[in-house]
Amino acid sequence: PSRPRPKVILVIGGPGSGKGTQCLKIAERYGFQYVSVGELLRKKMIHNATSNRKWSLIAKIITNGELAPQETTITEIKQKIMKIPDANGIVIDGFPRDVGQALSFEDQICTPDLVVFLACTNHRLKERLQKRAEQQGRPDDNPKAIDRRLTNFKQNTIPLVKYFQERGLIVTLDADRDEEEVFCDISMTLDNKLF
Ligand code: UP5
Ligand code: MG
Fold first, then answer.
1. What is the pLDDT of residues 82-134, one digit of tens each?
2. Which of 40, 131, 163, 191 ranks highest by number of CB atoms within 10 Å?
3. How remote is the CA of residue 16 from the centroid of ligand 1, in Å?
């Protein structure tokens, strides 16, 4: 008999809500494979922006804090997931960004087992991103792009969360708190809902 397919967890939330931080903790605790969609796109754009017109355009889009085209994003995720050999689970960081992407993911890949929404106040998001910008300097951690990312997030999230709520797939957690407190809630949720 073939192995059951790996569990698929999507982690969504505003820029700076702690998606990357918490997804790495999930991957470590549960032995899941970690896929960051933002990182996937950033790597690809850095690699291809000078030689490829499509990717040079996408590099501009991302650096401005806008969303990359849906089909490209889904294709990248699909390719990445197919390369993962055997996994108990896959935790996907920062996807989907809107209802269209959610529909397309289900259509082309699978229905997620759980969606975790890291809910944060705008004030906290800005504070964390500003702090990170001083330390690391991601290309899209500039004031203008941060504003675009926050605006896009606000516009798209309510419908997206509602969509997953109607299907009983989403858990919303207060992500304004310390990393450890947030992770404590996440692991309780995963233990309850997945195992
Ligand atoms: N930090 C984290 N948790 C904390 C806590 N509880 N208390 C205090 N500090 C905390 O955390 C951000 C910072 O806060 C860090 O310094 C951390 O130490 C601290 P992080 O875990 O990095 O938060 P995260 O939610 O991952 O923030 P990120 O900036 O990565 O979110 P974005 O959504 O902006 O970034 P992402 O990489 O997902 O997407 C980037 C871009 O890619 C998008 O804008 C878009 O252009 C493109 N994209 C698409 O087009 N389509 C996609 O599907 C996905 C991305
Ligand atoms: Mg991140």
1. 999 888 999 999 999 999 999 999 999 999 999 999 999 999 999 999 999 99
2. 40
3. 4
Pocket test for ligand 1, best of 11, 12, 21, 185 (most atoms within 8 A of CB): 21
Mutate to test the pocket of ligand 1, among 80, 128, 148, 185 (most ligand atoms within 8 A of CB): 128
- ipTM passes above 0.95: yes
Kindly tell me the sign of the dihedral angle through the C-alpha atoms of 38, 68, 159, 111. Answer: negative
Q: What DSSP string describes the chain?
A: -PPPPPEEEEEEESTTSSHHHHHHHHHHHHT-EEEEHHHHHHHHHHHHTTT-HHHHHHHHHHHTTPPPPHHHHHHHHHHHHHH--S-SEEEEES---SHHHHHHHHHHT---SEEEEEE--HHHHHHHHHHHHHHT--TT-SHHHHHHHHHHHHHHHHHHHHHHHHTT-EEEEETTS-HHHHHHHHHHHHHHHH-
Question: What is this structure's pTM?
Answer: 0.97
